[in-house]
Amino acid sequence: MLSSHSEVIDQSIVLLQSLNDYEYQDVCLPLFSVSIGQHMRHIVDHFSSLMRGMDSQHVDYNYRSRQSDTETSLLIAISQLQQIKAWVLCLTEAQLDKPLNVISDINVQSSHPGTVQSSIARELVFCVSHAIHHYALVKIIRQLQGAQVDVNFGVAPATIAYQQSLQN
Asked: Would you kindly state where each structural domain of the chain is located, as residue ranges?
């Protein structure tokens, strides 16, 4: 499982290494209101929340580093994703099974954080799935910028497996 999660993180690193600073910060108005950098910062925030919460057994997805250097610096984003990948690859079975409480705002109209019980493994699956969802948006932004993007970027592994089964 961990190597699969690592591969998903690698997808973003490879994509980011193909960008320049302008493309990373570009907002493709009117179709998008955020840049690739802002999507990447959001992805990093979720993984960082999980990493921070591992010791305290409390993961707070409401805590974000909005308007941080991750949004504007390709080098910082790539470095943070490499650190996340290294962390993922060092996790043990005992750590994956560790229980924790997850805090997340669940109300659109007002701030109303909810808390649920989970595990490191389950939240890692969430962070990876969440990243793939954002990759799909990043893929569209890159295509609007005139770039070719790997056909599997932003596609869920189950969808890729299904599509491959149709070709057999």
From this structure: 2-167
Strands (E), 87-165: 99-105, 113-119
pLDDT tens, position by position, 10-21: 999 999 999 999
- Report residue 17 CA to chain centroid gap: 16
Per-residue pLDDT at 107 exceeds 70: no
* pTM: predicted TM-score of the whole model, two decimal places: 0.91
**Chain mean position to CA 81:** 9
Question: What's CA 19's distance to the chain center, in Å?
Answer: 18
Closest CA to 90 of 43, 57, 124: 124
Q: How far apart are CA 37 and CA 21, in angstroms?
A: 9
Q: Please identify which residue in the block is written with the tokens 């799935």.
A: 129
Question: Over the Cα atoms of the chain, what is R_g?
Answer: 16
**110: phi > 0 → left, psi -120 to 50 → alpha, else beta; which?**
beta
- Count Cβ atoms below 10 Å from residue 53 Cβ, excluding itself: 20
Side chain identity, residue 145: Q
CATH T-level fold of 2-167: Four Helix Bundle (Hemerythrin (Met), subunit A) (1.20.120)
Q: Going by C-beta distance under 8 Å and a sequence separation of 6 or more, which residues neighbour residue 96?
A: 1, 119, 120, 121, 124
